[in-house]
Design goal:
single chain, mainly alpha, 4 helices, about 35% helix, transmembrane helix, membrane, LysM, transmembrane, LysM_dom_sf
């Protein structure tokens, strides 16, 4: 048989035990750091989004519209003939090669959803003079 020896366990005073802080994970607790739980991170995110919403409403709340009517734009009516395209009509009316912006303007004036025009369609275009 083998002989076992028993070694006495050193006595630790209560003063030494109370001075050691241990986190629930078994690691020494860190001091001075803030750790957020998942719920805490969601609350911070929601608060930040709410703050952004409040700031955007406060800064964007002013209207730029006035009570006075603006000057009506002078327009001409153009009838679409065979082979005409919106780009071609805009190129005739546009000055300084700004055809793309003229196409956009004609679409807005006539409330068009696309650039497709039909034979015989009457379009309002800005007048040249």
């Amino acid at each position: 048989m083998s002989a076992t020896t028993v070694t006495p366990i050193a006595q630790v005073s209560s003063m030494q035990v109370s001075s050691i802080r241990v986190a629930p994970t078994g690691r020494p607790a860190s001091t001075g750091q803030v750790r957020l739980t998942r719920r805490g991170r969601l609350v911070v995110l929601a608060a930040a989004l709410l703050l952004a919403l409040v700031v955007s409403v406060a800064l964007g709340g002013g209207s730029m519209a006035s009570e006075e009517a603006g000057e009506p734009r002078a327009t001409e009516i153009v009838v679409v003939n065979e082979g005409d395209t919106l780009w071609g009509i805009a190129a005739e009316v546009a000055s300084d090669g700004e055809v793309r912006s003229m196409v956009h303007e004609i679409r807005e004036l006539n409330n068009l959803e696309s650039s497709v025009v039909a034979l015989g369609q009457r379009l309002h275009v800005p007048s040249q003079g």
